[in-house]
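Narrative of accomplishments. A recurring question from our advisory board has been how the design workflow behaves on a single, concrete structure rather than in aggregate. To address it, we present the structure tokens for one chain from the evaluation set, followed by the sequence designed for it. No filtering or post-editing was applied between the two.
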């Protein structure tokens, strides 16, 4: 065999934002590869059809750079050209076509100036046919990519409100009002920040999310056939990653575990991953920022342990992947497992690892340290380990998810999927009470209330709390159904039904609250993050006039104070 050059690798590598060969695949459908790897979305299957059917006069696409706004506008252009439309103009700013006596105008980025015209001037020109206080009866469709900040500021300008009364009222109502009633259905605002590229199918049952489709396309075996006759294949980490995630024996499990990382990132709600972000991240995960030539030219074969995806993602510069460092399976404290792995390392050869990792190449190599080898094995066990063998062959490890910093992840997912959890409300109440510094004494009705600290006197050894019955709260999963984009339920709402006071529980807040409810005391940094998230919720409950109080003395004695029929009733219990 001889050295081969796989052009698919170069194309993939060009997606990575810090690529060694440069990042050129970063806007719209500007290359054959971009078109070849375009993943059809609800924009294509639903919005495009609605536009062609004449349902909308104005379409606003908002979101971050890389969300796919430009790509969709180019898909609309392609469709119109297929229908033998007439092109009036096309440049770097957009295009204009006519079809069936209607004019279609697209603007790639209405937030920027172009050819000495400011963004506001360009928008005035685009909306000129819609000037006035009523919807015009014209055959004109405008499609605009714009950031929501610019959309808000433009339509709140006094002169715009005056000159474009109908359009201003319609846009403000649709984009910036919580009202469910909208004045006109001929204008639509699609916010791509709300699009979710993953789903909640994390048990290898389905691979239908945009993330799944993209990863399957990147690792499709047909793109890697040339590697079968390459002399570098045996030590090429790029091919090894493509095989592990695409067409190897445990590839489906590896893909699902990788999707779990991206799902956690989404459910933490700390950043929004765009389509461009995910394409860049997957590029690095597969290539390791290497191309064929860099593998061929390496004076010493690049070891899989250094560039295999399950190691390289934890040292990436990519902004999306940097969040994964906190999820590194090698960081979880499992002393029994570490002692066992340390023994295996010093044995050099053993029969246990082939059972746990049948596709592994992680033999102990000259120069390996115990720490380095164990770090890699832990990561590989999460992504590719035979989980049914964990409980029998490994100490202190029952499932792959024991290697993640979450104990209640599965419970969070199941609730989002609609599975009722009768104990969840009480656990959240208990967890919030713990954040108030109120420790569970197990006395009386303690388990069935949420306690909000009113005051605490260290000198007098007395803590006074409001006592709110748990049955006054409800645990909700808001249905996130924005138009024309993929979405999933991604947060829990904890609501006080008497007042409407509520808070959002992200995955991290949910995890810490349930740990505290179970009696665990998280680190000060973790606890402070929860306190910050819950501050407004607890402050508003603090102002709520409750009928029940709890007085806790430093010696453990508890007093229940209740107001009933104008009388104050005191009940004392002792721990």
């Amino acid at each position: 065999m001889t050295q081969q050059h796989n052009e698919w690798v170069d194309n993939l590598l060009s997606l990575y934002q810090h690529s060694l060969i440069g990042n050129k695949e970063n806007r719209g459908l500007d290359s054959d590869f971009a078109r070849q790897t375009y993943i059809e979305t609800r924009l294509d299957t639903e919005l495009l059809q609605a536009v062609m059917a004449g349902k909308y006069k104005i379409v606003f696409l908002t979101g971050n750079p890389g969300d796919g706004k430009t790509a969709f506008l180019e898909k609309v252009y392609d469709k119109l050209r297929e229908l033998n439309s007439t092109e009036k103009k096309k440049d770097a700013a957009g295009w204009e076509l006519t079809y069936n006596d209607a004019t279609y105008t697209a603007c790639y980025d209405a937030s920027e100036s172009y050819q000495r015209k400011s963004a506001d001037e360009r928008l005035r020109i685009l909306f000129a046919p819609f000037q006035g206080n009523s919807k015009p009866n014209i055959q004109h469709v405008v499609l605009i990519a714009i950031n929501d900040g610019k959309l808000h500021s433009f339509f709140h300008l006094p002169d715009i409100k005056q000159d474009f009364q109908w359009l201003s009222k319609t846009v403000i109502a649709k984009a910036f009002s919580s009202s469910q009633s909208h004045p006109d259905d001929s204008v639509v605002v699609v916010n791509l920040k709300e699009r979710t590229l993953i789903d909640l199918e994390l048990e290898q049952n389905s691979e239908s999310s945009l993330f799944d489709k993209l990863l399957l396309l990147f690792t499709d075996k047909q793109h890697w056939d040339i590697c079968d006759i390459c002399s570098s294949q045996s030590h090429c980490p790029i091919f090894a990653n493509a095989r592990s995630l695409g067409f190897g024996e445990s590839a489906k499990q590896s893909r699902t575990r990788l999707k779990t990382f991206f799902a956690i990132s989404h459910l933490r709600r700390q950043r929004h991953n765009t389509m461009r972000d995910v394409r860049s991240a997957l590029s690095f995960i597969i290539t390791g920022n290497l191309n064929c030539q860099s593998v061929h030219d390496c004076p010493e074969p690049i070891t899989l342990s250094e560039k295999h995806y399950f190691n390289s993602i934890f040292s990436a510069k990519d902004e999306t992947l940097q969040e994964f460092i906190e999820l590194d399976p090698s960081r979880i404290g499992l002393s029994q497992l570490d002692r066992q792995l340390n023994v295996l390392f010093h044995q050099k050869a053993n029969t246990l690892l082939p059972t746990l990792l049948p596709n592994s190449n992680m033999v102990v190599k000259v120069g390996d340290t115990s720490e380095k080898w164990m770090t890699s094995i832990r990561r590989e066990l999460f992504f590719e380990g035979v989980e049914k063998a964990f409980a029998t062959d490994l100490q202190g490890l029952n499932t792959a998810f024991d290697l993640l910093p979450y104990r209640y992840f599965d419970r969070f997912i199941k609730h989002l999927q609609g599975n009722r959890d009768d104990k969840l409300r009480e656990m959240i109440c208990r967890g919030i009470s713990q954040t108030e510094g109120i420790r569970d004494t197990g006395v009386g009705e303690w388990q069935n209330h949420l306690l909000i600290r009113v005051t605490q006197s260290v000198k007098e050894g007395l803590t006074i709390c409001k006592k709110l019955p748990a049955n006054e709260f409800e645990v909700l999963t808001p249905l996130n159904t924005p138009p024309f984009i993929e979405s999933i339920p991604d947060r829990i709402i904890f609501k006080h039904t008497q007042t409407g006071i509520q808070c959002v529980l992200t995955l991290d807040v949910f995890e810490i609250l349930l740990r505290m409810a179970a009696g665990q005391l998280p680190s000060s940094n973790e606890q402070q993050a929860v306190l910050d998230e819950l501050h407004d919720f607890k402050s508003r409950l603090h102002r709520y006039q409750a009928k029940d109080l709890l007085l806790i003395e430093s010696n453990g004695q508890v007093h229940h104070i209740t107001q009933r029929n104008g009388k104050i009733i005191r009940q004392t219990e002792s721990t």
